[in-house]
Amino acid sequence: MATELKRELSRVIPVEGLSEEDVYSLMTAPPDLKMGDLTLPCFRLAKTLRKSPQVIAADLCAAVKDRLPEGVASVEAVNGYLNFRFDKASEAARVIKKVLSDGASYGSDTIGKGKTVCIDYSSINIAKPFHIGHLLTTVIGGSLYKILEKLGYKCVGINHLGDWGTQFGKLIVAYKKWCSEEELRKEGMKVLTKIYVRFHEEAEKDPTLDDEARAWFKKIEDGDEEATRLFSLFKEITLREVGKTYDRLKIKFDSYAGESFYNDKMEPVLQELEKKGLLVESEGAKVVDLSEYDMPPCLLVKADGATLYATRDLAAAFYRKATYDFDKCLYVVAYQQNLHFKQVFKVLELLGKDWAKDMVHVPFGMVSLEDGAMSTRKGKVVLLEDVLNNAVQKSLDIITAKNPDLEDKERVAETVGVGAVIFFALSNNRIKDMVFSYDKVLNFDGETGPYVQYTTTRCKSLMKKIGRYDEKKADYASLSDEASCAVIADLNKFGEVLKTAAERYEPSYLSRYLIDLCKDFNRFYLNNRILNEPEGVKEARANVVYAVKTVLEEGLRLLGIDAPDKM
Questions:
Q1: What span, in angstroms and rounded, lies between the C-alpha atoms of 501 and 353?
Q2: What pLDDT, on a 0 to 100 scale, did the predictor assign at position 30?
Q3: Partner residues linked to 279 by β-bridges
Q4: Among 121, 136, 123, which Cα is nearest to 435's?
Q5: Residues 198, 171: Cα–Cα separation, whole Å
Q6: What is residue 128's predicted lDDT score, i.e. its pLDDT?
Q7: Which of 558, 508, 550, 483 is nearest to 88 (CA)?
Q8: Among 98, 104, 215, residue whose Cα is nearest residue 149
Q9: Which of the residue ranges 145-154, 209-218, 509-518, 554-563 would you say has the lowest mean pLDDT?
Q10: β-pairing, 367-368 with 434-435?
Q11: Average pLDDT, rounded, for the chain
């Protein structure tokens, strides 16, 4: 129906070369269903057609009113908007049947077919704890991976490990002075954090420790056998432990190529910069002058010959383009790195790489508990594992109080607690700073993960009570009340919401959509009986329940969240 409507509008709008897709990009769902089911704001056509939006809407209304496709009941011009109303029974049947036939694949698309997207996210530091500051990059990147994959893109998830620098020399010194391999293998990250903190405390009293650390890092750079073995051991222990957290968050990666991976890949990039006259000397260092673009110079080699993050990111960009031939390369990194990525992307552009335009920084704000900032050196860090464990325990307490006889409470609490943390991180615009509150994120009645999970569980419970039924007997004319129409409209939006979330690299569009769908469904549930209703009515409403359950489950999956069968 929508396709036929776009076709008719593209024929009657007097703009040369206007395609169906152009028309589609102009159309939107109205903010209030009382305005109609679909609207064409005419304001963007005003400049081209040199008429007021009100006149354009009236002209188009007159031109299209006698050629409305089947299923579109009426059209009306109101204040510069062209509002369409669908035949409620036809629209309900179309949407519900589509969800039921597609199942979990509903909302999928092929717009990304043949295209590759690299997503750089999480990027933990080896030998440093996985703290709450890593939450946003990890779950935003993980959700974008799933959403883009559903839209047909081939995704490459990259964990650009922080696995290089003098901190590894410091760790080796600390390990050799205050730790044993047996203790390290037994205690893992706890002991690594402990000796790292101790190193900085001791170095304040004895600065020669810093000299020892630099010497050990030089040994790592030179491939010394003992230094390399210990460096690899720290990396192994870190990845083993963070892997448990990744499993809980349903996060996966296709590559763990970190900073150390690019050690032998920076020189060709520097040579190309020199060859093109872009690399200049400044006080002994080598930089790319970006003053013409209102940016400070991009420092690539320090006076002592050391390379920097920017050098490695340039090498990584070259490697990813050569290896994956990406159509987009996303960097899900905090907004504090805005300037860094502007500089790196500009350097690629100056090198004449036409794919520089395909590099995208996806910034996000900071997340913290009420006690504020964190410092690994001082040992003041909020571990993400502790946050998840606390959320799970608090979920278990709530579930035990509300439903003491629930089977497998521990497993349900894990699903709810972890899901609550993820949903919290993805429920607001990613650029906003957030303060984490257990009470808020675990509220079963608020706009939270548990609320969406509970609504999904309610749908599952309803389907169990309804039992077997013939979905084909549904009388879709019975879904004409306001609450039913709101749910149908929500279900119809799912695919477009996913596209918007992907285009704007913003999973919160999906999380907010799920909240709206839950609210509308719960209103539908309160206003419409399902069991013991006449034949046709019962089946139609049962189909609504099943369709909502399908979309909620899939929407949660795309955020990285499960929905338990019972709560």
A1: 28
A2: 81
A3: 288
A4: 136
A5: 10
A6: 83
A7: 483
A8: 104
A9: 209-218
A10: parallel
A11: 92
Which of 60, 59, 57 is CA-nearest to residue 68? Answer: 60
Give the closest residue to 219 by CA, choosing from 166, 150, 296, 148: 166
Q: Mind listing the pLDDT tens digit for each residue in 410-432?
A: 999 999 999 999 999 999 999 98
- Note the pLDDT tens digit of each residue in 325-382: 999 999 999 999 999 999 999 999 999 999 999 999 999 998 877 665 454 445 456 8
Give residue 455's pLDDT: 97
Residue whose structure tokens are 């003098």: 166
The single residue listed with the structure tokens 């190309």 is 272
User: Structure tokens of 57?
Assistant: 């809407």
Give the 3-state DSSP-derived string for 448-505, with helices as H, strands as E and coil as C: CHHHHHHHHHHHHHHHHHHCCCCHHHCCHHHHCCHHHHHHHHHHHHHHHHHHHHHHCC
**pTM confidence score:** 0.90
Cβ burial 156-165 (10 Å sphere, 16+ → b, else e): bbbbbbbbbb
Gap between the Cα atoms of 471 and 103, Å rounded: 14
Q: Is 440 helix (H, G, I), strand (E, B) or coil?
A: helix
Find where tokens 């521990």 sit. 410
Token readout for 491 is 């279900």
Which amino acid appears at position 412 of this protein? V
Point out the least confidently predicted range of 9-13, 265-269, 328-332, 484-488: 9-13
What is the CB neighbour count within 10 angstroms for residue 294? 7
**Rounded-to-integer distance, Cα 332 and Cα 116, Å:** 16
Residue type for position 494: F
Segment 8-14 long-range contacts (CB within 8 Å, at least 24 positions apart): 8/64, 8/67, 8/68, 8/69, 9/40, 9/60, 9/64, 12/60, 12/63, 12/64, 12/67, 13/45, 13/60, 14/49
β-pairing, 285-288 vs 298-301, is: antiparallel
Compute the 3-state secondary structure of the chain and give helix, strand, coil in percent, each to the nearest 5.
Answer: 60, 10, 30
CA angle, 407 then 546 then 530, to 5°: 90
In order of their start, the domains of the chain are 2-86 (3.30.1360.70), 165-230 (no CATH), 384-559 (1.10.730.10)
- For helices 208-221 and 189-205, the axis angle rounded to 10 degrees is 130
